[in-house]
Give the backbone structure.
Amino acid sequence: MKNPRSRLGIILNAHLPYVRHIDYPKFLEEDWLFEAMNESYIPLLRMLGRVSSTISGFRICISLSPTLCTMLGDKALNERFVQYMLCHIELGEKEIQRLEGNPAAQALARNYHDGLASNLAFYKDACASSLLSSFQKLEKKGVLEIITTCATHAYLPLYQDYPRAVNAQVEVGLQTLDYCLDEHSRGFWLPECAYYPGLEKILAHQNVEWIPLSSQALLTGSQLPLKGNFAPIKTPSGVYAFSRDLYLSNLIWSDKSGYPSDPDYREFYRDIGYDLDMDYIRPYIHEPGVRVFTGYKYWAVTGHTNEKVLYDPKKAKEKVKEHASNFIYSLRTRADMIRPLIGDDPYFTVSFDAELFGHWWYEGIDFLEELIKGMAKSPDIELQSQGDYILGHPDAQVMEPGWSSWGEGGFNSVWLDSENNAWLYRHTFKAIENMQELAERFSQQTSLKKRFLSQAARETLLLMASDWPFIIHSNTSAGYAKNRLLSHLENIGLVYNNMCKNAVNTEWLVKAEKANAIFPNIDYNIFSRGVEA
Amino acid sequence: MVLINISSLNDCELRYIVSSENVDGWQSMNRQQLIECLNDIYGEDAMASEGELTSGNRRLKFCKGLTDVQSDGTFRLPGVEKLPPVYMETAIRILPKDINWAYIFWSLGPNEEEKLNEIDPEFSLYLEAYELDDDLSVRESFKIDIDLEDSSWNFSLPDLGCKYRVSLFAKTKDQDILLAESNIITVPRSVLLDHIDEIKNDPDRICLLFSSILNKDRAPIGNRLVDMAIKKLNKQEFV
């Protein structure tokens, strides 16, 4: 029997930008989706299904972004995922042969191969080729609280002078979850945990009940939080806000010493896609001989050396148990410290990108499993979602959180970086203004013009994605991000110029609808609807 | 010490990465020189930050250096036109980067420029940045000279708890002409800083407020408002 004296709320932010390029036989950035499906989402679903068959009374929150939901429900991408899996299974067979004389490495190759095969079987049989329905089943079972986020994961503080565009991001985000999963999202993941005073009015207008915030958001708010970050506050508009606990989050997601950097865990960056000769690896990478991660990684983190030791799954498994126990110990210790200070049982919020678990941190899903099991055995601690918590604890201090994000420096500077990405806002703002002007001048159109304007609305939302400035700032796939930005800007420009001449470019329209087939029910008039902010 | 096995890459791949790092003379380097060059570029960083999740960006960049070749303007649909080099409107915007810096950008429309040239071919531009009170009255102003070729500026925000606005002016031989006014941004006042005296002798309250923004090594989250509060606490000899 549970008698929780402290509660933990885990939020996983599952998001990828819209990377669907079906005009190409194979497209590199689509691998982001397939890697996340195979390494994070499917293992997470399998683990939660397995654990929930014996354990009840816990719930984790997951934000499924609208772009991700759209891609997970896309028939063409789902077919490509199967091809991706088959290709990597074939590579596994080849690896098992290649490593004939090295039994330990061969066992790892076999493990990857078998993992791919069983993930594919799970995807086809248990999920009926739809991860969305599997997520939904877990929500119905009470294991997950599914929430949504902005339509394209836009970084909202930089668009605060465009409340209609912010509202469109929120409203279309909610609509998409409703469309894909027939679910109303009570909570709303703020992309990059980014908040600005006034945003809560738009969220309340859209019936959002709660939001997550960065660690410093309450501390820098309109008044001092009476219970620190250990209970939600209520904004003046009535939206609850949960601030992240840095200490517990940092045990996992740390720049220096998080669990994933343990020497016994698997090293992410040593991958045969980069390590083996081109002639061998060529059929499993991208044309023309473009190296990518294959998922076949045989080395452990080891330490500050390039001489990596072979990954040992048994050692890693022991470490997972150790780290899960350590996390529970830390949670309990912190709760004991905080309880007398607030005169109440504390609630801790931790949030992570979902892809950290399984993709970046190979053992991350196992860690979550051990954590759930460990907490289930402890009557004094409970894993409870934020939505459930506010149902049982409706009273909260009313205050306005401060402008904040979880990015470096805690404000806007990652997404507004003068050296690399700030140039884009000149164009983005202009495009939004043009879209708003179109929606006002040509309201309530029908037929072809409606389609034309609706496509412009899609392009405007895609343009606003936080991913593009982030990628450019990080200089990882900057060329792709810049081209995506330019293409959306040019597409909006085309609609604007055509509509000003009372024309519709049907060739463009057909191709654009096919290329960016997202938000099927979008109403472009959303960009003309006034919102008080 | 680079985590990726550089020696497995072929010469073409090595040249591609080195060239993308803007290294002079990469065209004439042999294989060994290319490898040494990459070790120089990536080695120190990888050594210093191995195991850190954020340092992954650097290593990921190395990997992506090889993969960022497919995106060569391939998404352009029929009928679209390239972005205009300048927009027709004369306008100015200010965006906050953090509590200390703002990014200002502006455009001078071609028609406006033509008009100014007619008035005075020697005209120049400048920005006037205003620090405003809550009622939007001007508390202070700062003049920033800019060149005609400039289109953006990083502006240091002097104070917390103020609003800021920027105007774009043209200076001609006879007069200064207001060309555009920006939006207004607000740099938040720190309630936390205001309450330091109140909480400085209350270790429980300090523990409650700050323990969620410290990591396990007791290092605070990287945020200037928080840093300022901690500094103020330390100044008052709180330990």
Q: What stands out?
A: The first strand of chain A starts at residue 6 and ends at 14. Residues 418-528 of chain A form a domain with the immunoglobulin/albumin-binding domain-like fold (CATH 1.20.1430.10). Residues 313-342 of chain A form the longest helix (30 residues).
